[in-house]
Structure formats: C-alpha cells, structure tokens
Amino acid sequence: MNTLTAAALLAIPDDCPERLFAGSADAVRNDYRRLAMQWHPDRCRDPDAHAVFQHIRRLYEAAAHRMTRGDWAPRRPLTLTAIDGRTYEINYLRRHPFELGTMYVANTVVAFVIDDAHADLVRRAERALAGLRYADDGMRRQVASHLPTCPFAGAFRTDAAHVIVMRKRPDLLLLRDVLEHFSGRLDPRHAAWVVSSLLNLCCYFQYAGITHNALSPDTCFVSPSQHSVAVLGGWWYAARTGERMVAAPAGTIAWAAHDLMDTGRADLRTDLELVRAIGRELLGDITGVRLARESAAPRAMIDWLRLPALDDPIEEYRTWRIQVLHDSFGARRFVELPLTQSDIYR
Amino acid sequence: MGGVRWNEDDWKRASAATRGKRTEEIFTSAGMHPALNPYRMNRESRDSPANPESNAIIVGLDVTGSMGIIADAMAREGLGTLVEEILKRKPVSDPHIMACGIGDSWHDDAPLQVTQFEADIRIADQLKMIWLEKGGGGNSHEGYHLPWYFAAQHTQIDCFEKRNRKGYLFTVGDEEPPRELLAAHAATIFGDSLQRDLSTRELLTLVSRMYHVFHVVVEEGSHARHNLPAVLDRWHELLGQRVLRLKDYRRLAEVVVSAIEVNEGRDRATVARSWSCDTSAVVAHALRTQPVGRAQALLGMIRF
User: Fold this and answer.
1) Does A245 contact chain B (CB < 8 Å)?
2) Residue from A212, A265, A211 nearest A235 by CA
3) pLDDT tens-digit series, residues A97-120
4) What is the ipTM of this complex?
5) Which of A283, B145, B256, B264 is the most exposed place for a label (fewest CB within 10 A)?
6) How many structural domains does chain B have?
7) Residues B195, A253: C-beta atoms closer than 8 Å
8) ∠B213-A290-A178 over CA atoms, to 5°?
9) Would B285 be classed as within a structural domain?
C-alpha cells in the first residue's frame, strides 16, 4: 500500500474503497492512519499530496459507511456451492461486475460467474473455444498462450449462475486494472505493444474463421514483462465469421462498424475496430476526439487509431508494424513497463 | 459556439423578411463565403449557461442543381420549425444546429460549406450566407460524404465528449452517395493529409462513432424522380434502415425532428400521429423503415 503512487491512488474510484482497504475495521483504520500520515500535505512534497490526502479520506469514509451498513466483506474468499453440493473457494484479488455477471481476478485463475439467464452464451463460449484449430504445433505454441485453455480449469453450476474458471499466469493483469493504475492513460509505447499483440491475434482469428466481438480492457489481460496480451474474457460473444451473432456488449455496438446493428453478422472488422478503440482508450480518449488536440501520442499513431479499420487483419498488422510504428517511434526497441500484480492488487 | 438560446420572436422577424422574396433575394452569395469554408476549420458545440446540456445536430443540404429549394424552404420556415419543435418535444435538450451546403467534390467550387453550431437566430443568418452554386457533376452522386468527414474529423461536441451522447447528422438530397473520398479531395477541401483514400462505408463507420447518421432522399428532386429505385438501393446498401424518404420537401424539419424522436426511443406511429394531417402522412412515409432506438444498449448488452 505504501508503494502506491499518487496517480494509482487517485485512480481508485470513490465507490471502490476495497481496492485500498482490506480486512477488519481495525485494520482499515490502521491502514488509513498510515496513509494519511504518508500523504498529509504538511509532510509530503508530492504536488498531488493534497488531492491524494482528500481522496484517501473519501475512500476511508466509503469503507466506514459500508461497515455501518454491514456489507463490508473484503478479502473474504469467494465461496461458491455447486448444485452437486461441492464447494469451491477462490481467493480473488479484484472483483469486476460486468454485463452478464461478475468476474473475479485471482492470482492464477480468473472466474466468471454468469447469471443463469445467459446460459446460452456460456455454451457459445465453450463451443467457440473447443472449436479453435491450429495449422501446426508452431502456430499452437505461438497463439494458445494468448487464449483460454479448453476445457476450462473449472466449470460448474450454482443455484443461480454458471461459473467458468480459466487459468491465468500470475504476470497477466486485467488491462482495465492496468489502465486505472495509470489514471486512465498509458504511455503511447505501451499502448503500442498492446495494439500489436491484439492485431497479431486478429490475424489468427482470421485463420481460425472466428470473431471475438468483445475485445476491450475488460476482457484482455496483459503481461507487462512479456509485452503480450491474453484474451480471457468475452468469449460468450464469439461467433464463426459470417454467422449471425446472438449478442454483443454495448461497448462493441458503440465502436464497431456502423452496420453491425443492421446485419448482426460476425465480421472481423468488428474485432479490428475494437482493437483501434482499445488503442484510443489506452491513450486516454476512446472517442479519439481529444487525442490530436492534446498530442497524446505521435501523430502517425493517432491518425491510424482514429481512422476506420480495413477488413484485412494481415494488411492492418503489416501497415501498423511497418509504417505506423516506425513513423511514430522509429526503430523497434523494448520499453520496460515495471508493473507487477503486487503493484496493482494488494 | 451556441452560447445563446433560441428566441421565437427573432425567428418570426427573420422568417417574415423572406416573404415575397425570390430565392436569389434570400441567398445572395455569389461565391463561397470565407466564414463557411471548411478548409483547415473546426466547429465546436459547447455547453454554456444558456445551453447546459447541448446536443449537436448537423443538417447537410444538397445545393446542387434544383436542390436549392430545400435550403430555400429551410430559410423561410423549416429552420424555425426544426428548432422550435425540438425545444417543444424535447427528444434532445438544448439543440445546437449546424447547416451545411453540399456540392460535388469533383466539379464544384464549393463542395462543402459549413456554418457554426448555433442555438439562436444566427443559424438563420448563416444559412442564408450559403452559396447556392447549383452545380453538381451529372455523375449521379453529390458530396454527401463530405459532411460525414467534416463531422468526424473537424467537430468537437460536448454532448459526446462530456456525456457520451452522439450528435445527429442528416444529409438531404436526391442523388446517390459517392463511392469514396479521395485523399486529394480531403487535401483541397479540408486541408488534411489522409494516409489513403477512404471508402464511403469507412467514412460512415468513422462518423458513426460520434453521430447518429441519417440520409433524407428528396423524392421530388429531378434525379430521384427518374431513378428512385437506384437511389434508394444505394442508400439502403450503405445506411440500412436509416434512410428517410421525403415526399414533400417543405416538411423536412418535421421529418428530422421525428427521426430524432424515434431514435431516442419514442414509438414511430405515435410520433407520426403527433403532427397535423398532411404532415403526419409525410412523416409516416419517411419513418416507415426507421428502427427503434437502441435503448437496450443501456443495459450493457444487446441481443440480436
């Protein structure tokens, strides 16, 4: 906790005190006192000290309010009872509600608890992942580590939900959490490797004849040490290319090609548009409107991210790697992103 | 722009001043007014104390050939109806209107003219500054994609930037859309250096991120009268159900207001019935293919 930067602390939403505080009322109070001492404007020289100090105070009050209401239960493991009577326990690091239920991010797994009403979408995810094919072992080695393993690490039903548990390497961090850690804006060089990795995956999607349809910071996990992306969430929206889609999240509708709502057809352009949307969001403005104004990244990168996607992922990837990245950053080099799980998840 | 509110009396005076005048006496420009030239120009629709929750609405009018009648009708009555009915019916709050004059990007001297976003009578003044060039290339399409590009790349609108609410963009004319925007045209018209030519479909994807896009086919236009199936096919192929058929050009404002209402989730038939007899029929004809709004998306997911 003491290592959190001002930006990381300020990025914690007011209504998520559990991201800062944990444990009993005493533990929360002690943590608050320690942080308040550390960030008190009279003691701390950080220019954001005043803002951080006030923010910590707000988060503490939110935690205290929850304790008063009796719904403060951080750090307690998630316990799920399957309909066959077995009990499962997940020590999760962070919990994210999403449109179908709740995602629990843990050290080596990520669990999706999906409301029964969406059982058909759970089956679609299973079918989509089971149907993935690879040209050879080389392709499998290169691609499979970026996708969920199938069969899942666990899958069972509770009284009201379907639970899918996927394996995850500890170095993989939810992109949304990484973005929040950096106050909603990544250095363009780091946004660039995320885009590169996703475009590479889109090339595989074309080979496999599928579309994911829900690429976003809420479904993608990144490894800062390896500069790679794993797409673990959102597979319930996947479809065979050209097939009629069953559903799509609102974010996809907002940023996909205009005709998706009319056709409802799985089209790789959707994934390619979503990759560009992710790139813009990582730079701090998913709309792209402010990027040029604020010179948030090199001009070539901004222009590319704002323009519509082509329908050919290989051409997209080629242009991005050869032209856009070169014009934006010059010769390729690895830029370290010193960020681990312990920096983000306490 | 758009920091002042609409005043009905201002409009009555402006509208009255057009009575008995010929189109040429209302639209007196003999060339593109520098203030309307989109070259290296941006337009802003910003919230203000008078319009705290502004919503950007762009209406692009074909001013080639005989299509100047549309701009003429808007200057006489339509503009007042547009603003006053939006204020009365409130499908969106605090409208900021921008008008465009659409020409031909291959042949015209003024392929696109753009006013500011305005919330008051200044929009009428600027509308009348548009040069009715009456050009067009005889190529079965006009530059309807030019307002799309301008809106996507050169407008900054608070409804979207602050509230994630898309603006509205209507183009109006009687011909088909062009196939592409050439990078060379983007350079000469807007002063932009595009990485490549953009297909009209790509432009639509681009502008749809920030605007709800509709096209109004003027069925009385000479090109549409002789080629209506082809015109409709091309537009439907591009815009799907967001093509509005206008059988009485004097009712453009009512059709635009109604399309916004339906897109915001109101019932299509109820909206059509809310107008007086003749107008009701025109609106019903225009809206018959329009899909209902996307309220489902607010729930976080859409099922097809």
Assistant:
1) yes
2) A212
3) 899 999 999 999 999 999 999 999
4) 0.79
5) B264
6) 1
7) no
8) 110
9) no
